[in-house]
Specification:
Layout (H helix, E strand, L loop, with lengths): L2 H9 L11 H10 L7 H10 L4 H16 L10 E4 L12 E3 L5 E10 L7 E7 L2 E8 L5 E4 L13 E10 L4 E2 L4 H27 L4 H17 L7 H28 L1 H9 L2 H4 L2 H15 L8
Parallel strand pairs: 1-4
Antiparallel strand pairs: 2-3, 3-7, 4-5, 5-8, 6-7
Amino acid sequence: MDVPALIERIRTGGIAPADAPSEADYYRAWIERGVSDPAPLTSAIVGGAMADRLAWVFLAGYQATITRCFPMLPVIPGWRSFVNTEDQTGHLSGTSLLGETGARRLDGSKTWVAAAAHVDELMVSARQNEPPFIVVPRGQAGVHIDHGAPKSYLPEMVQGTVRFDGVEVAESQIVGDETTFPVFRVSEGAYVRVALTSFILSHALRLEADAGLIGGVIAGLLGASEILRLPLPSPLASLAVAGGDRHTTALAAEFEALIEDRDADLHRRWMRDRRLVTGASTGIATRAEAALEGWRPRNARPA
């Protein structure tokens, strides 16, 4: 579905915030409303518009990012997690993928799993920041997911760890290559901001915001639909994502004032997790500056 049609569905209440105080609630709503989509922009917009808190904004953008990174995989109704981080203290061994072709095994631990209570498939890097990836269903023999204690940031989303004990890996489970991490780094910030913009639109309409905020959000979503058609990563995309981030940050400030005045509960949750709104901006800006160095016309460079 194209972006104007999705915006119209949000306007008419066809896509509306779900009452989802827990991960189980949002997962149920995600499945019931059929949010997963082969077009990552669509799932980011729909998932963001039905979020009632920033944890689900992140998760909607995160699912879209994973779809963008692994286009060879079929869409599943539920969720995947990009499982890469390893313990740097030496307490837990990182993962290793060993064995001959057709008889490989995965062992070791990863220290961050998003939506750990409900994730259906884990996209596990062979080693931290090293491809390939292994698609591991949560119920596969040898997979042990620990939910851990609730975190102070995005606490409704269960952020756990996972241990692999001799998990048998078929060749069909191995995906990704040296392009996967660069695509992920650019995509995550972009799709999370799409989900955030859609979230703002959904709640701004509910709270009867003025035309300036509503128009700005619509412009942001329409702009994102063009930006995310670009190859990722690419200099043009990195620069456009940075421009979109500046636009979203300005909209978020207006929205924050709106909810402070009109929705105290949403404002409280927003302020607790506000890092999601601005936390990626430095990385996005740094990638844009690096992209500009190579993209700028040679005769425009300082002597």
